[in-house]
Amino acid sequence: MKAFAAAVFSLAALTAQAHEGHKGGIASEPVKAVKAPFDIVHTKITTEGNMAVFHMAVSGKAGKSKPSKTGKLAGSSVFSYVWPTTMDPSVVGFDQGAGILAFAVTSHPDFDDTPLYDENGDGNLSNDGDLWHSHWVVLKPDDACGKGALKVVDIPEGAKPKLPRTWPGLPLLIDSPGYSPLFKGGTVEVKVPFDDIGVVNAAGFDGVTSALRVNASVHSPLLCVVDVFKVASGKLTLPGKVNQ
Fold first, then answer.
1. Gap between the Cα atoms of 191 and 210, Å rounded
2. pLDDT at residue 233 above 80?
3. How many CA atoms lie within 13 A of 147 on its CB side?
4. Distance (Å) of CA 96 to CA 89, 137, 138, 231, 237
5. Any bridge partners for residue 228, and if so which?
C-alpha cells in the first residue's frame, strides 16, 4: 500500500512539474491534422540572468521527424522549430531593419551550415546538417516563394550587409551561433546568451513549425518557407510576451 501511495505521489509531482513548465507564453490546442512532432501546444521565451530560454512543446516527440535525404542541395528540405520575434536584427549583428528576426532549430541532411562546429564529434565540420542545431535568421515575404510566403533574406551578389561573426558564409541573412538545442520528450529548449537581456525582455514572439526548401536552381530566393505546419498564435501575430 505504501509503495502504491508513493507511486501516486510521484506521478502527481511529475504532472505538476509538467503543468508548471507550460505556464505562461502561448498555449495552443492540439490539431490532429498536424504531425505530432510539429503540433505546437505551448511556446514561451523566458530569461535567466543574461540567458534567454526559447521553449516549445508539441503533442508528440519533439525532434522525431527529420527530412529525407535527397543527395543534393538543390530542392532539399529543412525542418524547423522557429520563434519569430519583434527584436530588431541588429540585436544579433545584422543591419537594422533588415526584416523579421527569428530564432530557429533546424535539421537538413543534405547540407551543413554550421562550419565552425562539429556537432557529431567525428572530426569533420561539414557533415552535421542532419543533427538539430540552431540559427538566427532574418525573414521577409517574397511572392517568388508563393503568395505571401516568407524566405530567409538573400544577400545579392556584391552586397556587403552587416553580418554576425558566426555567419556561415551562405548568401543569406543567417547566423550559426552554435547554441545547442535540448530535446526532452515533447519539448525543445535552447539557452541563448545576450549582452543586453533587456532587449529580450521587451520583445514579442510567436512559435512556428515549418518546412523550408532550397530553390531548385540554388538561386535567389535561395531558401523559402514552403510549408507551415502550425503557428502557435494561429495567425503569426507575435502576441507572446517574454516572462509572461
1. 21
2. yes
3. 0
4. 6, 13, 11, 26, 21
5. 210
Q: Which residue has the cell 533546424?
A: 106
Residue with cell 543533427: 131
Q: What is the DSSP string of 144-204?
A: GGSTT-EEEPB--TT------TT--SSSBSEE---PPPEEETTEEEEEEE-S-THHHHT-E
> What residues have CB less than 8 Å from 194, skipping those under 6 apart?
50, 51, 52, 91, 200
Q: What is the mean pLDDT of the chain?
A: 91
Is this model's pTM higher than 0.70 or not? yes
pLDDT, one tens digit per residue, over 66-85 is: 999 999 999 999 999 999 99
Burial of 2 (0-12, 13-18, 19+ CB in 10 A): exposed
Q: How far apart are CA 221 and CA 112, in angstroms?
A: 19
Rounded Cα gap, residues 18 and 226, in angstroms: 33
In angstroms, the CA 34 to CA 232 distance is 12
Q: Tell me, what's the pLDDT at 16?
A: 35
**Cα 190 from Cα 183, distance rounded (Å):** 9
